[in-house]
Amino acid sequence: MRIVDAQIHLWEGPDAPPHHARSPFTMETAVEAMTAAGVDRAINCPALWDADANAYAALAASTHPERFTTMGWFPLSPGGDASLVADAMAAPGAVGLRFVIVDPAEVARVASGELDWLWRAADERALPVALMVLPGDLPLIGGLAGRFPRMRLMVDHLGVLPFLTLPEAMAHLDDLLDLARHPNIAVKATGVPSMATDPYPFVSTHDALRRIHDAFGAERMFWGTDVTRMDRTWGECVTMFVDHLPWLTGRDLELVMGDAVTAWLDRR
């Protein structure tokens, strides 16, 4: 079974937010840890806190093309245009884009249509675009999916904020499940252990995972870790899905653990 992590961050700089590892997470560190955990590939979402992370992502993808692909980003400042998308997708290993839209000003630009140049360019290219939004803004993703049906959207972390635990972490579950009616929306089941209220294998999270799987199907539910903010091992993040979800077996397990995100990104 091919195991692909749907989201990690690589960076070399000295700074990181408090919910991530304080030291740099380099390609060499990642490859060693992936090998130990049995993870074949990882989708690198360049760290927002390191201004050089996009360049480092290109280096990682060039150095280890069998290990890393990239969903890069650029500032969503007023006056952007489709050339930013073209430039980002020309980078080595680029398979899509990823943005964090939690600042109220950026949320307003999405709602007003000011960023339609971005979504239109992604739609024209049928690009995968991953978005991290506040739980209350999940309907914005549904609106984008309806207006730009060729853009393949991915919801980061099941819409869960990094500091929340159950049950608060899943208070938005109905809104998340409602997005399943859009065939161009998938969800990343990344960072799941961080919302658990119990030790490995984090049974407190399993009911929500089952409901999300039932709504989106294995073709649109992607396992991953966001490993640098986990206080559990990469291997435990793998085996909680592989060994401890009795309803996730056979082809569905293969899809969730890597084949589905590979197909979504057209990296078969």
TrEMBL record:
Against InterPro entries, the record matches this protein to:
ACMSD (IPR032465), Amidohydro-rel (IPR006680), Metal_Hydrolase (IPR032466)
Write down the Gene3D superfamilies for this protein, in alphabetical order. Answer: Metal-dependent hydrolases
Report domain Amidohydrolase-related positions: 4-227
State a single Pfam family of this protein: Amidohydro_2
Keyword annotations of the record? Lyase
Q: What is this protein called?
A: Amidohydrolase family protein
User: Origin organism of this chain?
Assistant: Nocardiopsis lambiniae
